[in-house]
Amino acid sequence: MIQIKDLHKSYQMGSNSLHVLKGIDFNVKEGELVSIMGSSGSGKSTLLNILGMLDEADLGSYTLDNVSIKNLNEKVAAQYRNKFLGFIFQSFNLINYKNALDNVSMPLYYQGIKRKERTDKALHYLEKVGLADWATHLPSELSGGQKQRVAIARALASDPKVLLADEPTGALDTKTSYEVMELIQGINEEGKTILVVTHEPDIAEMTKRIVNLKDGRIIDDRPVNQILAKAHV
Ligand code: ADP
Ligand code: MG
C-alpha cells in the first residue's frame, strides 16, 4: 500500500537548514496497523505529513497504492488525498458551529456526493463509532473522546485506503485513549490500513508493528508481539 525509499526532508529557516528526515525506508502492506513512535522533534509529524500528501519530501520516492507521488499539481494531489487518505489529528479539527452529523458529512459534499447519500453515510459511520445518538450535538457538547470519535467517523466516511492519525490520543486521558485505540483496532480488523503517530509506548503497543524514529532515522521496526515477548524475558 505504501512504499517509501530514502526519504529526506529539510526545513529552511533563514540561512539555516534543519535536516529532519535523513533517509527513511519502509513499506506498509494493505491491512496493517502500524505505529510510528519517537520522542518529540524526531520527525514523526513531518513523515506523516509527507505520507498524507500535505507536504513533499526533498529526496526519495513515495508510492501510494501503486501511484508514484511526485511533482503532482495541487488539483491532482487533492484528488488523490480525498480518494486515498483519511486524517485524524490530536486536536480533532472539528468545525465548532456544525453538529456531529454535518462534521462527518461535509467532506462528502466536496466529493460531489448527494445530500441523501451524505446523510446516510454520515449516520452509518457515527453509528460505527458509537455516537448515533449524538448526531445533532455540537462539538462543544461532546467529551474529548466523543470528539475524536466524530473525527474518526469523518475520516472513515469517504472510505479511504489508508487512515493517518497524528497523536490521536494526545489530548485524551489514559482511559479514553485506550478506548479510542480499541476503536482504531476494530477498524483495522475490518481491513483498513492504519498508521498511528505517537510518542507513548503504551499506545504504540496497541498497534501491530512499531517503527521507532530517532533523529530522523528509523532505529527499529518490528512486530509488537516480538517487542513484547522480548520485554518479558
Ligand atoms: P515530531 O512530530 O516527532 O515531534 P516534527 O516532525 O513535528 O517532530 O518536527 C521535527 C523537527 O522539525 C523539529 O525540530 C521541529 O521543530 C522541526 N519542524 C517541524 N515543522 C517545521 C516547519 N514547518 N519549519 C521549520 N521547522 C519545522
Ligand atoms: Mg508531531
Automatic annotation (TrEMBL):
Keywords: ATP-binding, Nucleotide-binding, Translocase, Transport. GO terms for molecular function: ATP binding; ATP hydrolysis activity; transmembrane transporter activity. GO terms for cellular component: membrane protein complex. Residues 2-233 form the ABC transporter domain. InterPro entries: AAA+_ATPase, ABC_transporter-like_ATP-bd, ABC_transporter-like_CS, MacB-like_ATP-bd, P-loop_NTPase. SUPFAM superfamilies: P-loop containing nucleoside triphosphate hydrolases. CDD domains: ABC_MJ0796_LolCDE_FtsE. Gene3D superfamilies: P-loop containing nucleotide triphosphate hydrolases (3.40.50.300). The keyword Plastid does not apply. It comes from the Bacteria. Belongs to the ABC transporter superfamily. Macrolide exporter (TC 3.A.1.122) family. This is Putative ABC transport system ATP-binding protein.
